[in-house]
Write a structure and sequence with these properties.
Elements: E1 14-25, E2 28-35, E3 49-54, E4 58-63, E5 74-79, H1 83-90, E6 96-103, E7 116-122, H2 126-138, E8 146-152, H3 161-167, E9 174-180, E10 190-191, H4 194-201, E11 207-212, H5 215-228, E12 235-238, E13 254-255, E14 258-259, H6 260-263, E15 266-268
Parallel strand pairs: 7-8, 7-11, 8-9, 9-10, 11-12
Antiparallel strand pairs: 1-2, 1-6, 2-5, 3-4, 3-6, 12-15, 13-14
Helix pairs in contact: 4-5
The protein binds FE2/S2 (inorganic) cluster.
FE2/S2 (inorganic) cluster (FES) is lined by residues 243-246, 248-253, 259-261.
Length: 279
Amino acid sequence: MGCSCHDNDPLIPKVAVIKEMREDTHDVITFKIIDKDGNRPFDFLPGQCAMLSIPMIGEAIFSITSSPTEKEYIECSIKRCGKVTDYLHELEVGDEIGVRGPYGNNFPVEKIKQTDLLFIAGGIGLAPLRSVINYAMDNRSDYGLIDIVYGARTPNDLVHPKDIFEIWPKKLNTRVHLTVDIEHPDWSGAVGYVPTFVEALAFDINKTVLICGPPIMIKYTLQVLEEIGFKKEQIYTTLELKMKCGIGKCGRCNIGDKYVCKDGPVFRCDEITELPNEY
Ligand code: FES
């Protein structure tokens, strides 16, 4: 007789199917994932994560980049950076993987309603923020002006190109500010690192800030924001790239006195006493 007690066990992966793979950059693919019945594998909120597993290979935790308002699937943007991600990149549409979740806490989308939103992302750090950006756009009257600052090393490293170049700039009360680290023949936009770019954009300080990217980018951008007059209480970040097991077992995600997987991955910046030096 089958045991139904496993049905809701968060440790048992569900079988999922890759519905679509979109190559965003040379090393980032966005996977659209559904369950065996063709439905979204689970409900979640912006900022939460999914654990993807491949039998005999391993598992890894990824932020969900689609918005919960997209009810038919979850999407994860995955950068090739090791055994599991290499393997995932070699899969094809229709292949099966394991999925479980959601993991971690979420961006406080209720609490920040009616504020202007300033998103600041570097590289693959746009992935978790995209979930909140699209959530806010799908609930547009709940949020004020939206500014999205996004930078990557080169134009070819900017993920979600369709969103940043085509979809978001056309949205109501939304501004997209892009920069790349170094000059490139195909780029006529801003050049420079994200913290310097944020400083030059001279935002007014009555905004909620949501930031994600490499630790060095976060560190210097926070310094700039504080110099401009933003308070740590206005700034949220996600440190999901620090998570490994995702369930408080491996002890590899602590930052000061916090465990990213149990206390985060989303933190208000006044809640953390230190930031990671690396992921
Ligand atoms: S990710 Fe393993 S203990 Fe937090």
